[in-house]
Amino acid sequence: MSDNRRTFIKKSVAFGGYSLIAAGGLLDSPDANAEWLADTPSTTILQQTLKRLFKDRQIIESDKIGIQIPKTAENGAAVPITVTSSLNNVESIAILVEKNPIPLAAKFELSPDLEPFVSTRLKIAESSAVVVIVETGEGFYSAAEKIIVTLGGC
């Protein structure tokens, strides 16, 4: 009886160990992964985020969006930004940071009775563009500003 039990325990431990190794990716071929990565289209995280948020809708560049942000920030941990708009029927304002690990920094849903004005502080990983997307009843509009960060915040 003890031989069957020992054999069962040995096989269970061996099977569990192989399962962990396989699940951890240690038995994968790096060449196969390299071929898969080469086949995928190269899009930035910002482009993927825009596609996910706005589902391939056309975004028009507009000069009716005001972005007040310092051109240079000593510390990217708390960068002040103020966004205003003279567009009509503003429904939402989204703020994205191009080179952050998660580009969507903030999204504000606005009532039609409110003035399109938002102010917040951003965490910015490195020097990049800050993109503001304003959704109105007529469509989507964008504006961007470049910012130089000397000490990353993320």
Q: How many strands?
A: 9
Number of domains: 2
What value does the Rg take, in angstroms? 24 Å
The percentage helix is 25-40%
Describe the overall structure.
- The protein has helices at 2-23, 30-39, 45-54, and strands at residues 59-61, 65-68, 72-73, 79-85, 90-97, 104-109, 117-122, 128-136, 140-149.
- With 154 residues, the chain is α+β, with helices and mostly antiparallel strands.
- The protein has two domains: 2-39; 45-149, Immunoglobulin-like, CATH 2.60.40.
- A hairpin with a 6-residue loop joins strand 5 (90-97) and strand 6 (104-109).
Q: Topology of this structure?
A:
Elements: H1 2-23, H2 30-39, H3 45-54, E1 59-61, E2 65-68, E3 72-73, E4 79-85, E5 90-97, E6 104-109, E7 117-122, E8 128-136, E9 140-149
Parallel strand pairs: 1-9, 3-9
Antiparallel strand pairs: 2-4, 4-7, 5-6, 5-8, 8-9
Features:
alpha+beta; Immunoglobulin-like; 2 domains; six-stranded mixed sheet; three-stranded antiparallel sheet; 3 helices
TL;DR?
This protein has 154 residues and is an alpha+beta fold.
